[in-house]
Design goal:
The chain contains eleven helices and eight strands. The protein has helices spanning 3-22, 27-31, 33-37, 39-57, 94-110, 129-142, 147-156, 168-177, 183-190, 194-206, 228-239, and strands at residues 25-26, 71-72, 75-76, 83-89, 117-123, 211-212, 214-217, 220-223. A hairpin with a 2-residue loop joins strand 2 (71-72) and strand 3. Helix 1 (3-22) crosses helix 4 (39-57), helix 6 (129-142) packs parallel to helix 8 and helix 6 (129-142) crosses helix 10. The protein is globular and about 50 Å long.
């Protein structure tokens, strides 16, 4: 095979990986018999995704809060903001990571920092055990006022679903890397937020959430990863006269 042919095939694989990353995760995708039958194919795609995610992870978290943004629990921005975006997400979901690293920073700097939008995060931990462990660890970080710092660390550290990236040992190491106190590790091992994460996920199901990410913008449901411009077209009319 010539060098030009190898380069052409590499470009085709790169385009395919980007499409896969942008797809929302759904329960049907997770449990489909077709997926199980095609596991060898998914394994190949997974290797390519790991390469891409490794590049992104090296860049570090992308949603560090600007100084002007208030944070309270799972919410960024003022409670009295005229627009509320409810985000339902799974820390293992690649599309959720794409939203967190690319779209959310634009929302934070353009709207949240001005007090126009509040973004509220909800757990939809349905992609496996590591999803639940990661969500519980984020709650443990929240005890020390660093929920979103840990949230950003998780999304910067994605490396495939249920492959050990979010093992408890790794989750505890992430806490050390962002400066959490030693009590964080004990919290991760305790499992004391397991029920809270299950309750949040069940609440999402009650709202009709079947894919991640899912956003509700003043009640309007959007599945998948919208671009910033698509969100702007929804948000700006809601701010008229405000």
């Amino acid at each position: 095979m010539s060098r030009s042919e190898r380069r052409a095939r590499a470009r085709q694989r790169s385009r395919r990986d980007r499409v896969e990353e942008a797809r929302p995760r759904t329960r049907r995708q997770r449990f489909s018999p077709v997926q199980l039958a095609g596991v060898s194919v998914l394994a190949v795609v997974g290797v390519l995704v790991l390469i891409w995610l490794g590049t992104v992870s090296a860049q570090g978290p992308a949603t560090t809060l600007p100084p002007a943004i208030t944070q309270n629990g799972h919410a960024r921005g003022p409670a009295n903001a005229p627009v509320t975006i409810e985000e339902w997400a799974d820390f293992q979901c690649p599309a959720c990571g794409q939203f967190a690293r690319i779209v959310a920073p634009q929302l934070l700097s353009t709207y949240v920092a001005k007090g126009q939008v509040q973004i509220v995060f909800h757990h939809m931990a349905f992609l496996g055990q590591e999803s639940s462990w990661a969500a519980e660890a984020a709650e443990c970080a929240g005890e020390q006022g660093k929920f979103f710092e840990y949230h950003d660390k998780l999304y910067a550290s994605q490396a495939g679903e249920n492959r050990g990236a979010f093992s408890k040992d790794n989750l505890k190491r992430f806490g050390t890397e962002i400066g959490l106190a030693p009590s964080f590790a004990a919290c991760v091992d305790s499992g004391r937020y397991a029920q809270a994460v299950r309750d949040d996920t069940k609440a999402g199901e009650g709202r009709g959430v079947t894919a991640t990410p899912t956003l509700f913008i003043n009640g309007r449901k959007i599945e998948g990863v919208p671009s910033f411009d698509q969100l702007k077209a929804i948000i700006d009319p809601l701010l008229l006269g405000r």
